[in-house]
Amino acid sequence: MTNKFTNHVVTSLPEEMLAEIVSHTASGSLTDFVNLRLTCKAFLGASNYDRVFEKVSMENVSFVSWRKSERVFQKRCIAARNAEALYRKGMVDCFSRKKPDSGLRCLKTATEKGHVEATYARGIIFICLGGELREQGLRILSSLDLVKSDKRSSKIIASCCSKTEKIFSCMWVYESLAAPRRDCDHDRDRDRDIGESTNRSSSLEGQAWEASNNIGHCCDSCFWDREATLFCNLLRKYLVTGC
């Protein structure tokens, strides 16, 4: 009787509410998500909506999925154009699977959906590639409006740096990038200190990157060159050699 009543109540809920319940559950736990799908046909049907996977949080899903349930879940999120899932796939394709074209497409889509870390990574990659792509990278990064001397900008940059290291530390890194050539004498003098600071740090949470503390004290180009150098140092730190 109780199950029939519950099923009747759930079935009577609007589709949007069902999708919101499923999305909220999936954001908290994949196990709870699987169990919810088994409770009744209404939740099972709602769990197939693309909008559920497009908006779901992936905070509790490993950066690089090894479990089958996580891999299936992440594939559904990618198909639904979930920004975080696209960012993760883009980074893995670029630096682990040696599929830069696919990776950059994923990062571009995630950027268009407003994903800050994807915007950061795509802009930095273009700066490192140089030439006309460098100018495109600077335009991409300028859209973040972060080169200002305020706590908000420093916090966002530090978050991007920390997340970059987290995802590199979880994958096999087979590709690296060359740091941009530095034209500023002051910047060249700081290159060694930045590299040593990155290599000394073992913290993955809230890493205080030196370049992030200099927002507002240099031009946009010099600031992003520093960030690109740090990004390249991280790639070298996790680069798999001898393969």
From TrEMBL:
Domain of life according to the entry: Eukaryota
Basic and acidic residues compositional bias, start-end: 183-195
Biased composition (Polar residues): 196-205
UniProt xrefs under InterPro entries: At1g67623-like, At2g35280_TPR_dom, F-box-like_dom_sf, F-box_dom
Pfam families listed in its UniProt record: TPR_27
Domain called F-box: residue spans: 7-56
Native source species: Hibiscus sabdariffa
Region (Disordered): 183-205
Protein name in UniProt: F-box domain-containing protein
